[in-house]
Design brief:
Blueprint (H helix, E strand, L loop, with lengths): L1 E6 L10 H9 L2 E5 L9 H9 L3 E4 L1 H6 L1 H7 L3 E6 L7 H12 L3 E5 L4 H9 L10 E3 L10 H11 L4 E5 L8 H15 L6 E6 L7 E6 H4 L9 E5 L5 H7 L5
Parallel strand pairs: 1-4, 1-5, 2-3, 2-4, 6-7
Antiparallel strand pairs: 7-10, 8-9, 8-10
């Protein structure tokens, strides 16, 4: 018996690989997590029809506690369906290690990741990518700023930043993320003349990419959620030309 981590890709059920489909059809139990990203509505329903079995959606706590998945994997062929590429999330690496310690065989079916997709769609060079980070949705008494420092550190080193936007209960708006960075920068002053690339619904027919100064982006139509931001570092002339396609 085994535990397979199957990547679903970045937008809908059509992004999954043929190998991924075969793995899901071969498994006795198929779990899915939906907390690390948002896909096109109805994707899992359509995927159920393709594989001919029910997909059980797990809460974040159920994945992180691991017991529900591992208890099944001891005696059955189990798959965990993950948005994007399965091993990008630290949680899933931890689950893989736990399974192997129990003597459960594991396998990984990789897929496209929003990190490489976002950089590629912008026309930026992936070897200049710095540390990624996530902007959290602020609430009363909870206003973390560590991601601002990650972005500023990357910029000072000439590196690009891929910035994920929070998904707690809702998709964080791109304008909200930009306003948050500008708010922190009022006292920190590390992101002078901030420019950003806003990517909306990457991989879909509705994909929209907008590039410009932060103030201009706040006035622009940036598309629909889910969003991801890319903050460019030092640009090669080819990268500059690529970004001008999306400039406002």
């Amino acid at each position: 018996m085994y535990l397979a981590f199957v990547g679903m890709g970045i937008w809908n059920e059509k992004d999954i690989s043929i190998r991924g489909l075969e793995e899901l059809r071969n498994c006795d139990v198929v779990f899915a997590e939906q907390y690390t990203g948002r896909m096109q509505e109805g994707s899992l329903d359509r995927l159920e029809a393709l594989i001919g079995k029910k997909i059980i959606i797990l809460l974040r706590e159920e994945v992180e506690e691991e017991k529900k998945i591992l208890n099944e994997a001891v005696s059955k062929k189990v798959a965990l369906l993950v948005l994007g590429d399965p091993m990008i999330s630290t949680t899933h690496i931890s689950l893989k290690l736990s399974a192997e310690k129990m003597g459960v065989e594991t396998k990984v079916v990789h897929s496209s990741s929003i990190i490489t997709a976002a950089i590629g769609e912008c026309g930026l060079q992936v070897y200049k990518l710095g540390k990624p980070c996530t902007l959290a949705i602020w609430s009363k008494g909870y206003e973390p700023t560590s991601s601002y420092d990650v972005i500023a550190d990357n910029m000072e080193r000439g590196l690009h930043s891929v910035v994920f936007l929070d998904l707690k209960g809702r998709c964080m708006e791109a304008s909200e993320a930009i306003e948050q960075l500008l708010s922190i920068d009022k006292s920190r002053q590390r992101l002078k003349g901030l420019s950003a690339v806003v990517l909306s619904r990457v991989g879909s027919k509705e994909q929209k990419i907008t590039y410009g100064k932060a103030d201009a982006l706040l006035k622009a139509n940036l598309g629909k959620a889910p969003f991801i931001l890319v903050i460019p570092g030092k640009l090669h002339f080819v990268e500059e030309e690529a970004l001008q396609r999306f400039a406002i």
